[in-house]
Amino acid sequence: MSRITLKSTTLCPCQSGLHYGECCGQYHQQTHVPSAEALMRSRYCAFILHDIDYIIRTTAPAQQHLLDAQALSDWAQSTQWIGLEIVQNQTALSPKTAPIQHSRVAFNAFFMQQNQRQVHHENSLFVQIDGVWYFVDPTVPLPSNKQPCLCGSGKKFKHCCGGFLT
Length: 166
Prior knowledge:
It contains five helices and four strands. By secondary structure, it is α+β, with helices and mostly antiparallel strands. The protein has a single domain, classed as Nuclear Transport Factor 2, Chain: A (Roll), CATH 3.10.450.50. A four-stranded antiparallel β-sheet has the order 1-2-3-4. A hairpin with a 2-residue loop joins strand 3 and strand 4. It comes from [Pasteurella] mairii. It holds the Pfam family YchJ_M-like. This is UPF0225 protein NCTC10699_02324.
């Protein structure tokens, strides 16, 4: 199945209350995403629209080659997303002077499966690299604690992104 398109005047599926063109639509078109929460919302919307390229592009660069595009596409197509609730948005987990910033967004994504309403709860980690926010995917192999961090900070994984994945 191909990517679904929306009119820019349609309410955004991320449930921000904004039109798609003012919200996730601009991010899907390569516009800078200003925050971890906006990135999380735009990724949720991308799953609804089957925009797997966006899902991959917004995952931490060191992890992108580890993602299975076909599996992501199959999952997006087999899931009927029906709602999103932001539970908590923790910004600036790192000191503001740090070159790499981390944020965490906890959310509930509601979907239908076998005519039953289900909920997917996630506490996602995001990292800002060179001013661009990325999702850190805990489902793909991660560096060991003593290896360099996947964000390129030069720190060991356990002292950078790994420290926020607990």
